[in-house]
Amino acid sequence: MNQSIKPGDNPDLTEERLSGTFDTNSMAAVIYGSDKLAQRRREISEAVSRIPELQDSKPCPFMTREEKILEGSRKSAILNRLLPGLIDLDSFEETVFIHQEVIGIEGHPLALHESLFIPPIATQGTDEQQKKWLGRAQRREIIGCYAQTELGHGSNLRALETTATFDISSQEFILNSPTITSLKWWPGALGKSANWSIVIANLIVHDKNHGPHPFMVQLRDEKSHEPLPGITVGDIGPKMAFNGADNGFLGFENYRIPRENMLMRHSKVTPDGGYIRPPHAKIGYSGMVRVRSRMAAEQGLFLAHALTIAVRYSAIRRQGYLEDRSREVKVLDYQTQQHRLFPSIARAYAFIFCGFETIRLYDQLLIDVQNGNTSGMADLHALTSGLKSVVTHQTGEGIEQARMACGGHGYSMASYISEIYGVAIGGCTYEGENMVMLLQLARYLVKSIEMIQNGKSKNLGPMVAYLAANESEIDLNLGPNEYLKVFQYAARSQAWRATEKFQKLRNSGMSKEQAWNQASVELTRASRLHTRLYIMSTFINHVGSVVDQKIKKVLIDLLNVHITYEVMDIGIYVQGLLSSDQMDLIRNQLYVSLETIRPNAVSLVDSFQISDMQLRSVLGRRDGNVYENLFKWAKSCPLNDKDVLESVTKYLKPMMDKSKL
Ligand SMILES: CCCCCCCCCCCCCCCC(=O)SCCNC(=O)CCNC(=O)[C@H](O)C(C)(C)COP(=O)(O)OP(=O)(O)OC[C@H]1O[C@@H](n2cnc3c(N)ncnc32)[C@H](O)[C@@H]1OP(=O)(O)O
Ligand SMILES: Cc1cc2nc3c(=O)[nH]c(=O)nc-3n(C[C@H](O)[C@H](O)[C@H](O)COP(=O)(O)OP(=O)(O)OC[C@H]3O[C@@H](n4cnc5c(N)ncnc54)[C@H](O)[C@@H]3O)c2cc1C
């Protein structure tokens, strides 16, 4: 049963919910990993909805940037007081969720505090450093951010210019931004809110540059909040979206911090200027791997937001006719609309399933690394580099399709889809620009193929073992595992094609760097296919593990949408494997699977259980009563406070009065 049905709802939406074949609470439990987690989300939403001071003071699209930051800060402060009674304070998921629910997706002063400031202290700080700062940060006595990117450098960490030079005589590091391009640029919450930051700077000891390292740096006075002497800091201005966050700039001029402020769990500088290397050269990058490992689930949820809006709206929007000329049809009945939306529903589920898997893998890696075992770092770096790139790109595409699926009203901020889009596509850039991260994964794929070429296939990890197989024929009786083989074929042949191109260029005498550059489009294609294969196989495994038969049935239907759509989408890569008859068969299976999933479309998006408060969309309202609320929303727009605006009295009226044309 669909748990969203309530009296007074739009009957078209109720009809859809009654046609669903499964229990949406049970599906939510599968989506969020357990009945308890799904239940906690519902309880938190419910509790928040009963607290008047946590409600939006007005719709976000009617707020200026200053109002958004003020509103985010107001709610953050109230939440900090109320959190102990509302959530499990030890749960990162619940903390993120409640902020999302109460403040929304446009960012807020603490947006980076939990995800990029606290984790490096907890994982890269020594026990004493944790004792000194972790409690203060968790109680929010200080607000932090993560300052790595510079005005002139982001993707290439090795070119960062900020320096932290060790001064033995005073036992301090001296921070400097030697050039305009070395100004830190972009860190969220840095602009106006944070008073502390993790700063990534080149560690220089005895004139030797040891590369980027993390430092705990106080930026502002804890009483006055004024920037401390030697610090230049401010906001970088409005962005495409995410304007509730104050992304900032930061410069240092001979700014001194104690030696104990370098995070020293892994790399160390001793009082006499000795440098102790970390157990793995890239361990300082692990904060980024953590965020990337969470991005698939986050992005899947952004896509889920847009689809909840578009699918619900498509069920109440009537336009045009099919057979019955007496009543217009729901636009959701058009095959084109289904083709536009249903494969994205499948992707949202797939991304969330993958996302919870990579979060689990990261948590395991963290335990391993704390125990001195860094052997899993390269695998997870490669996997999360590809995943963040593919998922953010496809999420952006899916959200834009959802907007177009809502016609004209999709373009209105009342739909809220443009904000969701703007926030989500930030992910194509932050935590590593997508092309750059695809090329990181490509390094791993090329190395794997070189292992096969050197007769060491048995050393390949399970994720790349398929690169050594030799599939040349596929049974026409296509089930999920045959689709997987088709995808393996595509990913394998592209990985070999790209590697061989790189090797050929090398053998022609080209430098490694030039050959890599000349092969890079092919290499990124290989990375995308590898990642899409991983997403598909995780989806198949996840559905296989579901116990509830009604849920399993609909997830198999959704999986059929996914596998047929994905294989059609990569048709060009499987021409050598599949005949045109087989391609036709798959195409027809896709159309059948769209029809099969149609009665469950609304229930599938309802199962994400995104509350109206969190969705902030007039079009996506749970009750489907869109038109009267669109009219209310438009009337409440500040432009309608007066009938005659100054723009008219001051300019247009005099122009019309004087016009001689
Ligand atoms: C609905 C729910 C919403 C929830 C709510 C969300 C709201 C939404 C919030 C928005 C929040 C935004 C938050 C943004 C926060 C930032 O954006 S912070 C800044 C992030 N910046 C980046 O990601 C920079 C990207 N660049 C890099 O990471 C590095 O420069 C690169 C690309 C990895 C290259 O590093 P490099 O040191 O030059 O290394 P390179 O020579 O390429 O490689 C050397 C070896 O190291 C290996 N390696 C590199 N990195 C690693 C690693 N991490 N681990 C292991 N090995 C590694 C390589 O694989 C390579 O191995 P081999 O092939 O040699 O075996
Ligand atoms: C919303 C948002 C929030 C952010 N928050 C933070 C934060 O909190 N803290 C922080 O430190 N930073 C933050 N950032 C910065 C972000 O991490 C960087 O912008 C990102 O890492 C990309 O780096 P870049 O801007 O230097 O891009 P560039 O590297 O300049 O990219 C420009 C183009 O060059 C290409 N390119 C670059 N290098 C290569 C290469 N080696 N091979 C092929 N192509 C290449 C890219 O693919 C891209 O097409 C944020 C950014 C955004 C948008």
From TrEMBL:
Pathways involved? Lipid metabolism; peroxisomal fatty acid beta-oxidation
A GO cellular-component term linked to this record:
peroxisome
Residue span(s) of domain Acyl-CoA oxidase C-terminal: 480-656
Residue positions binding FAD: 149, 188
Q: Which cofactors must be present for this protein to function?
A: FAD
Record-level GO BP terms: ascaroside biosynthetic process; fatty acid beta-oxidation using acyl-CoA oxidase; lipid homeostasis
> Where, by residue number, is the active site?
431 (proton acceptor)
**Domain Acyl-CoA oxidase C-alpha1: where?**
285-446
User: Do you know which InterPro entries this protein is assigned to?
Assistant: ACOX_C_alpha1 (IPR055060), Acyl-CoA_ox_N (IPR029320), Acyl-CoA_Oxase/DH_mid-dom_sf (IPR046373), Acyl-CoA_oxidase (IPR012258), Acyl-CoA_oxidase_C (IPR002655), AcylCo_DH-like_C (IPR036250), AcylCoA_DH/ox_N_sf (IPR037069), AcylCoA_DH/oxidase_NM_dom_sf (IPR009100)
An example of a GO molecular function for this protein is: FAD binding
Where does the record place it?
A: Peroxisome
In this protein, which residues make up the domain named Acyl-coenzyme A oxidase N-terminal?
23-143
Tell me where on the tree of life, at the top rank, the source sits: Eukaryota
Which key words tag this protein in UniProt? Answer: ATP-binding, FAD, Fatty acid metabolism, Flavoprotein, Lipid metabolism, Nucleotide-binding, Oxidoreductase, Peroxisome
DNA damage found in the keyword field:
no
Q: Name one Pfam family in it.
A: ACOX
Where does this chain mainly localize? other
In terms of PANTHER family, this protein maps to: ELECTRON TRANSPORT OXIDOREDUCTASE (PTHR10909), PEROXISOMAL ACYL-COENZYME A OXIDASE 1 (PTHR10909:SF250)
Indicate the family of this protein.
Belongs to the acyl-CoA oxidase family.
* Official protein name in the record: Acyl-coenzyme A oxidase
Which source organism?
Caenorhabditis nigoni
The coding gene here is Cnig_chr_I.g3576
